[in-house]
Design goal:
By secondary structure, the chain is of the alpha/beta class. The chain is built from 5 helices and 5 strands; from the N terminus they run αββααβαββα.
Length: 167
């Protein structure tokens, strides 16, 4: 879950990216372990830094295959903003988004995507695919990857180690 991105990613901008990732990490850590959801957290803030929505993985808890942390946070942010267009918003998430979540970022018109750990198996923001920077799409957010990468990867690694032991 770590390592350099195979495609260029912008350098961290001085925009409180670490603070945002810490909020996402707090959300990931607050997930109920009993449900068995992977501890991924996400937070959406508007251009002024106001938190519009936050979420964690809820697939196991809800039986909803689309209930990834990013989608949950984007749904809540859209409800708070009163619009599906989240122009000017930043999504911070502890794990590189998958294809579904990367597509949701593009469709929601999110301005910036900040993430922690890379996902070499299913990442769609530079690791396996690069959905958010596909020139055929109508929107391409700024991407900052690897923020608090070690901390995010450690949380996930611990979860999977425990998951394997308990089987």
């Amino acid at each position: 879950m770590s390592g350099p991105a195979p495609l260029p990613v912008s350098l961290p901008a001085p925009r409180d990216d670490e603070r945002l990732l810490r909020l996402a990490l707090a959300r990931a850590r607050s997930a109920p372990l009993a449900a068995g959801d992977v501890p991924v957290g996400a937070v959406v803030v508007d251009a002024s830094g106001l938190v519009l929505g936050a979420g964690g993985n809820e697939r196991e808890a809800t039986g909803d295959p689309t209930a990834h942390a990013e989608v949950v946070a984007l749904r809540r942010a859209a409800a708070a903003a009163g619009s599906w267009r989240l122009e000017g918003a930043t999504l911070a998430v502890t794990l590189e988004p998958c294809t579904m979540c990367a597509g949701a970022v593009v469709l929601a018109r999110v301005a910036r995507l900040v993430f922690g750990a890379w996902d070499p198996k299913a990442g769609a923001v530079g690791s396996v695919w690069d959905v958010v920077r596909d020139p055929r799409l109508n929107h391409r957010p700024e991407v900052v990857g690897g923020v608090l990468e070690a901390e995010c990867a450690t949380l996930l690694r611990g979860f999977f180690e425990e998951h394997r032991r308990s089987r």
